[in-house]
Amino acid sequence: VNEPLNADMVNKDVRYVMRITGDNNEGKAELDNFIDPESRYPVLVTTSKLMTTGVDAQTCKLVVLDRRIGSMTEFKQIIGRGTRVNEDYDKYFFTIMDFRKATELFADPDFDGPPICIKVVNEEEDPVPTDEETNNEDQLTTGNEAEDGFDSIDEIENQDHVFPLLDWEEVPKKYYVGDVEVKVAGERIQYFDPSTGKLITESLKDYTRKKVSTQFESLDAFIQRWSDADKKLAIIEELEDQGVLLEALADEVGKDFDPFDLICHVAFGQPPLTRKERAENVLKRDYFTKYGEEARTVLEALLNKYADQGFANLEDINVLKVEPFSKFGTPMEIINWFGTREQYETAVRELEAQLYSAAG
User: Fold this and answer.
1) Which residues contact 253 (CB under 8 A, 6 or more apart)?
2) pLDDT in tens, 246-270
3) Parallel, antiparallel, or unpaired: how do β-strands 180-182 and 190-192 relate?
4) What is the rounded distance in angstroms from the CA atom of residue 46 to the CA atom of residue 268?
5) Taking the complete model, does pTM exceed 0.70, yes or no?
6) 46 φ, ψ (degrees, to nearest 5)
């Protein structure tokens, strides 16, 4: 008999991994323990359809799919086992491992039905519907709730209704099974297009390239638009509204690059510079010499903020309220070193121009 994986955990308690199916009395006896957040064992279970419905596994963080699923109702019920949120046990998300392309059903138009409740609110109102509003027959989508993959309206109300396919954590470069180093032969990435809601299965870089090309026909067009913009953040928000996943892209390409370099590199094939490299290039040009000593100190601090955190700090005057600026004086005192607020904002725009100049 082969030595089981996780043998050390199984030796601590044989219930670490269990089969819970209708024909296994020993496994069925442990079902209540598996769904009890306070019970330590079982940790991992395999099942057929016993836990498809009617099982409230509040702390289930991993759903593994190893068979084709032809029924949309069954797919929603299975995925629904992971969607519960339990703040007491730090359960805010779950991960799906799909070995049979079952998650392609996320792209099926039948996956998302009509909304449970539509509530129009203004800025002062709470967007979360009350129980009375949710149960209002004029607002509530009625019918067979099992079709939504949940067992009751109460369960629906407790769902975040968010189904992440990927946990964007950094993946290690090497993998080991026992003492044997293994390599990844192939990788399949899926994510939702934020603008259309469709499931995308392609390289994140290819997807980004196509999205950017719909907004900018060339590298020159992008750079010109970036240079002309008083607020670079507006361009970033526009790209994100069009479905460009900049945060995920930074995880894949490098977190030391700002959105400008991510776009130039991925969409137009330009070699990227890190924020630190761009900041160092500005310092080499002796750009600050035209300012007084106090103003130079502020601009250098802004440059350091950019190198550490990105350009958003440059465009938010509230940055003058935090360290190290709060040590220099009040925001008004700092602005006065430049003359007026308009002159301060002009200096910041010139600093941005230096950061993204052709020589950068």
Assistant:
1) 205, 262, 265, 266, 272
2) 888 898 899 999 999 999 999 999 9
3) unpaired
4) 46
5) no
6) -115, 145
